[in-house]
Amino acid sequence: xxPEAPADDQASPGGRRxxxxxxxxxxxxxxxxxxxxxxxxxxxxxxxxxxxxxLIPHAAGHExxxxxxxxxxxxxLTPDVIADQLIGMGCVRKLIFSWAGNPGVGSLHRFRDxxxxxxxxxxxxxEHSHAGLTARFVAGAAGLPFGVLRGYAGTxxxxxxxxVRWVECPFTGERLxxxxxxxPDVTVIHAQxxxxxxxxxxxxxxxxxxxxxxxxxxxxxxxxEVVDALAPRPGGVVLPSWVLTAVACVPGGAHPxxxxxYSTRDNAFYQAWDxxxxxxxxxxxxxxxxxxxxxxx
Length: 297
Description:
Layout: E1 29-30, H1 33-40, E2 46-49, H2 58-66, E3 72-75, H3 81-88, E4 92-97, H4 109-117, E5 124-127, H5 130-142, E6 146-149, H6 157-160, E7 165-168, E8 175-180, E9 186-195, E10 200-202, H7 209-215, E11 218-227, E12 237-239, E13 246-249, H8 267-278, H9 280-292
Parallel strand pairs: 1-13, 2-3, 2-9, 3-4, 4-5, 9-11, 11-13
Antiparallel strand pairs: 6-8, 7-8, 9-10, 10-12
Helix pairs in contact: 1-2, 2-3, 3-4, 5-7
């Protein structure tokens, strides 16, 4: 049994109902991936794509590339291969992040090329600690103007990042770091299951997917399968339909990462990506052959 959507007089701060979108219903709509990206993600949007270690929404990112989105602000705690691909294909103008790399392998070569050489376009970066960027999502989800944490002290991040300020606790006088709420235009995640009413269940290692969805104006969830009923899972996270905008059934949508209970991590791909992405021409040919030419779900 899932909670009913809030009445209009219970709308979240800013006057919007969670997950609402003027062009879609106030509960999640089943859509194809291509239709969902076309409807929800626009040039210039702030787009969060979350998923930690597994459930990384690669298929959705590829559809963004195929549809040629430009000028995006891309937010992700741990930008890895999908961020490298989006940056290398010219989709991203700014990256908000707290760690970047090819996990267990090394650097992101397209990310580095954009920062160091401005190819294929200059990339603005805003770097945080994991706790700091998480606090931004949490504040956005709670409808608060900023998040507060004990962090950044003793590091150079506060000086290098304009969105870190210092405040004094009115109760104890303690000096604390403050970061502004992050409210993406769109959050995209991958999950294991949705039911036929659009409620979503994810389990296994979870990051800030819940907070990123609740903070966003619109949201898209790709799932491994649609089931008649969601069975409780230890540590599982349920996102009720009324906080979501759209759900797309995309089996294997996390590859080369994995979906616990459905697939395993493609470690060989992450190793191969290091060579694929080092050279600009090789990268573009690979993307043309394996992403641009691919048929969307």
